[in-house]
Amino acid sequence: MSGLTLRPGRFKRVDGPVAIVVMDGVGIGPKDAGDAVHLARTPVLDAIAARAGVVPLAAHGMAVGLPSDEDMGNSEVGHNALGCGRVFAQGARLVNAAIDTGALFRGETWRWLVEGVRASGEPLHFVGLLSDGNVHSHERHLHALIERAHAEQVARVRLHVLTDGRDVGATTAHVYLERLEALLARINATPGRDYRVASGGGRMHITMDRYEADWPMVERGWALHVRGEGRGFASALEALQTLRDEHPGLSDQFVPGFVVTEAGRPVGPIRDGASVCLFNFRGDRAIEITRAFEDEVFTAFDRGARPQVRYAGIMQYDGDLHLPSRFLVEPPAIDRTLGEHLVANGLRQFACSETQKFGHVTYFWNGNKSGYFDASLETYEEVPSDRGGFEERPWMKAAEIVDATLRALKTGRFDHVRLNFANGDMVGHTGDLEAAVLAVQTVDLALGRLLAGLDRMGGVALVTADHGNADEMFERGKGGAFAMAADGRPKPRTSHTLNPVPCMLFDPRDRAPARLAATVERPGLANVAATTLELLGLAPPEDYAPSLLTPR
Fold it and tell me: Residue 505 and residue 516: Cα distance in Å, rounded?
């Protein structure tokens, strides 16, 4: 931990604990009929804002390391920025650069994948989320990989596509499939080429589970992609249209799994000798399917005869666990995080959330690192999430998270606590406005309990969010008006937003010797770490985004 010791800061330390509360998916929206944050009854947040004011923080685009300000933020890059105090080039930007410079294709892993199928005669398989949402993946990356395989004389390619409906419009999968099929048709005009979609299904139905919340999702994907077992269709577009007709109002994220067949047989099961590339760049929903391919000992479900393949991710999804063992693009090297600095300076920290966001206040907060920096100074507590539709239980586990955090605070052991309320994001993704309003009201209620307990212990809190979501629950058409569905109702929006997020200092007894203010140009999530260090009486590292505290 040498080099991590910090000198005393310009402000006296707050006597009690300093908390960071992340209200996941609660942005500052347009305050209209589709803004669940505005529609919710939030007396606690209103009272903090009235007393201390709100500093809007940029939580998307270049403020969190994404390629442009047209890119929505997400929980992973948001928690990286919150926890490491600086802006690092993130997944999409890294992959874009690796493709544009050709570095990805000059790398050893790409050559290894291609050489494997040249030797075996099996297809090169690509698995991942088909959209331009730029949160987990981008169709541009897949198209570039396919084009390169074609240029390098790979004869056969199979695609296993996951429909989105979450980071993009709820029923836009046909747009991406049509573009993909046009590319494949052009390549297949070359003699000796056989490039096809082999299987697919909705991202929240198959393959893309996270944090081991629902392994049967991964098992369903395994059956489709690997064994070719599932309902058969002549094409992915036929499958999508048929399933939409059978399930009116179905969001793309929940499309049942399908297999493309020819003469009654699947066109692309993954067999011995194949090469497989997972083209999602974000880690949380890529780890479990990666384990299914790579783990020698695997008990989550019965894989059957695991095919012997060459497997790689477009990025490494967990650097500490080395998942996957081979990858195409190096991840950002994040060091000297807030948590690491606190440990080096002898400060004790507690992190808590429910399963859906537990990795965010631990792994992503700590710079994409698993485990503890020093287990004697850190305690992490996970509250198991409910399974099933979050719109059915929009309160989720907010109360239990507060229970766990208050228990920790009552021990008197912790200098810093951080927690995440997942409600605004997870319920926002369902597109259910009424449920999202209840989710935000739940967060406000839980926040009131938490802050009352923190106040009794002499503490203060920074209350913020990692990105927007519940703040815009309806799609917009030309001119900014709500886009309307065939039934005359506004079309639900299930993706994140480009809106800023609030940052407020809960300090009702003026314990902190400073107040929160927008003291820098375009403050963003990265400024929270330095602000926290100053509340703890420490001088932030010089290369951290500056603190938002200003003397009273």
Answer: 6
Q: Report d(CA 369, CA 261) in Å as an integer.
A: 41
CB within 8 A of 258, min separation 6: which ones?
Answer: 199, 200, 201, 224, 230, 231, 232, 233, 236, 239, 243
Alpha-carbon distance values, 255 to 171, 224, 236, 446 (Å): 10, 13, 11, 34
Residue 218 to residues 202, 277, 319, 358, Cα–Cα distance (Å): 12, 16, 21, 19
Domains of the chain: 18-90+333-551 (3.40.720.10), 92-329 (3.40.1450.10)
Helices first, then strands: H and E counts in the chain: 17, 18
User: Residue 74: which residues within 8 A CB-CB, separation 6 or more?
Assistant: 135, 167, 282, 466, 467, 496
Strand order in the sheet with 18-23: 55-57, 501-506, 460-464, 18-23, 416-421, 349-354, 378-383
Whether the link from the prior residue into 541 is cis, omega within 30° of 0, is no
Enumerate residue ranges in the chain where pLDDT < 70: 1-2, 319-320
Say if pTM beats, i.e. exceeds, 0.90.
no
What lies within 8 Å, CB to CB, of 324 at 6+ separation is: 278, 290, 293, 294, 311, 312, 313, 316, 317
Structure confidence by residue, pLDDT tens digits, 85-113 = 999 988 888 999 999 999 999 999 999 99
DSSP run (H or E) holding 266: strand 265-266
Answer whether 85's CB lies under 8 Å from 20's CB.
Answer: no
The one catalytic residue in 68, 75, 131, 251 is: 75
- Contacts of 425 by beta carbon, 8 Å cutoff, 6+ apart: 24, 25, 75, 357, 466, 467, 469, 470, 496
Check residue 319 and give its pLDDT. Answer: 65
Q: What is the DSSP string of 458-504?
A: T-EEEEE-SSBSTT--B-B-GGGPBPB-TTSSBPB--S-BS--EEEE
Our answer to whether residue 68 is catalytic in this structure is no
Distance of alpha carbon 381 from alpha carbon 207, whole angstroms: 26
What single string gives the DSSP state of each residue in 351-383? Answer: EEEEHHHHHIIIIITTTS--S-S-TTTEEEEEE
The residues facing 205 across adjacent strands are none
Distance between start and end Cα atoms, the chain: 34
Q: Distance (Å, rounded) from C-alpha 353 to C-alpha 400?
A: 9
Burial of 543 (0-12, 13-18, 19+ CB in 10 A): exposed
